[in-house]
Amino acid sequence: MCLAVPGRVMEIEERDGTRMATVDFGGVVKDVCLEYLPDLAVGDYAIVHVGFALQRLDEESAKRTLALFENLGLLEEEFGDPWQQAAGAPQEAHK
Known about the structure:
Blueprint: E1 5-15, E2 18-25, E3 28-33, E4 45-49, E5 52-57, H1 59-71, H2 82-86
Antiparallel strand pairs: 1-2, 1-4, 2-3, 4-5
């Protein structure tokens, strides 16, 4: 299953002509493309899907959604790392 996950922009830089950000997803930090949201700034929250920031989100909604994902077990390691799964890394079969 693919999820769009809210994250907080920690740092922004341009790489090879592409605006990129370091984004914190409740403790998991990943690189994200900002081409769809060029005015996103450090400290802003966005919904991210497969490495692209798609929509700006207010802080309260982002934190509420991350808490819900955590409570549902969607961010726990026992279900595997969704970021590795998206990248095509092998995962253990679930029983």
